[in-house]
Write a structure and sequence with these properties.
mainly alpha; 3-stranded antiparallel beta sheet; 18 helices; about 50% helix; globular
């Protein structure tokens, strides 16, 4: 199959751009004169502007043609995150530009020139003219681009945009007011260390209410209160949320009262009563793994629970309902030893006579690994297994009650214990191609359907968002599988495409 000329030329152009930038990245900037450094920085800014315009036009066409559907992604944002490996914020920024070039073609053309508007200035100008009515936006863009081309700086452009906006307002106050919600937004994110970051734009009314509440709850509490004003505002926000939840004024979600979930490791619980030096080392090691899991949850969204340690964990668990969950990890080194042992044993036939074993293919090795892991899990699971012994022997009488069923056979209903265990294990949509929908937006799916002999168990259930559950799997016919090592695969209906949550199997 020949490559379309347009695509081939675009690919060649990108290769030259990458080669040029690669050469520049390998150069030692310290050997450049200040004049050369300044010139490079100016040129790179212009190249970035052109790249932004090119990406936006291509992404707009890709979005219009629903190119992301070929990989069973539900949106161009999801495709960007999982196929180009950018962050959520970067994906949102790229899509923002894809929308801007359609709404502001004159600004996009000026951006593509590279010398008229920088990317940041072009985004700012679009924000100014977006406040105008649609019949005024094109004219305003033309005026501002002409001013920028004539050499107007950011201050001059801001003055001109403000004048245009003032002249566009109706003569009678209140006329032409918009009923949309473009003036408000709040975004809550979690960092890798479990802290929260809030960003947003508040309406004047909301800002006034928030200010009143925070002022009322943030007063200094005596001479010993050394918190800064910002720290007192944070604690005031925390107290306000506590009071709101405790007052029972929040509406139910999914028919259940609103509850706050927190994760606290066994290491934190054990550390409350002190212990030996060996136990201290174990606690330190668990905390490291805990931090890694918390960091992963900050990217995937997790199940919406807070990840606590230290004083925060002790404060949260002193009067909370504690549900013990015993988890484990796979030792890859031991797994390789078991695989080699199985390969060695495969050299003997049923009669005990040596035979020449067939070469182990990559697919056969992967299937063997999954089978070994599954049997190993069966060996330590169940009421008499190692996991149950550790839980009942280490947690004390308060937490050492009977195990909850994690396999109820053929049942259309998914019990709360299984649902909770699946949420804790998966944390987010388990689509093999990548999906960042958090547990709160997902449903529990039977990997092997009940009609095909599947059971309602933790092993046969996985967490999938509405799109991948109802559209990709049930409507489009993709099949999914979860392997004993926790990895997943998804295969297209015609079998031509396989998505993996992990790398390809090792070569023999």
């Amino acid at each position: 199959m020949s490559t379309p000329p347009a695509f081939a030329s675009a690919r060649d152009a990108l290769a030259m751009v990458r080669a040029g930038l690669g050469y520049l990245a390998d150069a030692d900037p310290a050997e450049m004169a200040a004049e050369g450094q300044a010139e490079c920085l100016q040129e790179l800014e212009q190249v970035g502007s052109v790249a932004t315009a090119a990406r936006a036009w291509i992404l707009a066409a890709f979005t219009t043609g629903r190119g992301y559907s070929a990989d069973a992604d539900y949106s161009p944002r999801a495709w960007l995150i999982h196929k180009t490996r950018v962050t959520k914020g970067a994906a949102a920024g790229y899509l923002g530009w894809a929308r801007r070039v359609a709404a502001h073609p004159q600004i996009a053309a000026a951006l593509a020139e590279g010398t008229v508007l920088t990317e940041s200035m072009a985004r700012t100008v679009c924000g100014w003219t977006d406040r105008l009515s649609q019949d005024c936006q094109q004219a305003a863009d033309e005026i501002l681009v002409a001013a920028a081309r004539a050499g107007a700086d950011q201050r001059a452009l801001a003055e001109l945009a403000a004048e245009i906006y003032a002249r566009s307002l109706p003569d009678t106050p209140g006329d032409g007011s918009q009923d949309g919600f473009d003036d408000r937004a709040v975004r809550v994110e979690t960092t890798f260390d479990g802290a929260g970051v809030i960003r947003g734009d508040l309406t004047p009314e909301c800002a006034a209410l928030v200010g009143v509440v925070l002022d009322a709850l943030s007063a200094p509490r005596g001479a010993e209160d050394t918190r800064t004003r910002d720290q007192r505002y944070h604690d005031a926000l925390h107290e306000a949320m506590d009071r709101l939840v405790a007052a029972g004024l929040l509406p139910e979600r999914a028919g259940q009262p609103v509850k706050a979930w927190v994760h606290a490791s066994l290491a934190e619980l054990r550390a409350m009563d002190g212990g030996s030096v060996l136990q201290g080392e174990w606690i330190a090691a668990v905390r490291v793994r805990w931090a890694a899991a918390r960091g992963a949850a900050s990217v995937s969204g997790g199940d919406g629970a807070a990840w606590l340690e230290g004083d925060a964990a002790r404060a949260a668990t002193c009067d909370a309902t504690v549900i013990p969950v015993v988890t484990g990890q796979i030792d890859i080194g031991v797994l390789d030893d078991l695989v080699e042992l199985c390969v060695t044993l495969a050299g003997h036939g049923p009669s005990g006579q040596p035979t020449m074993p067939a070469p182990l293919t990559a697919q056969a090795r992967e299937m063997l690994e999954h089978a070994i892991i599954g049997k190993a899990v069966d060996l330590v699971s169940g009421p008499g297994g190692l996991a149950s012994f550790l839980r009942t022997g280490q947690l004390g009488a308060r937490l050492a009650g009977p195990s909850l069923p994690l396999d109820v056979g053929r049942s259309a209903e998914i019990p709360a214990a299984i649902r909770r265990a699946v949420i804790l294990r998966d944390q987010h949509c388990q689509w093999a191609g990548g999906c960042d929908q958090p547990a709160a937006a997902c449903e529990v799916h039977h990997l092997t359907h009940l009609a095909d002999g599947g059971t309602t168990s933790v092993r046969n259930c996985g967490l999938y968002c509405f799109f991948h559950h109802h559209i990709a799997i049930h409507k489009w016919g993709w099949t999914v599988a979860m392997h004993p090592d926790g990895t997943t695969t998804a295969r297209s209906p015609d079998g031509t495409k396989t998505l993996r949550s992990h790398g390809p199997p090792p070569r023999p």
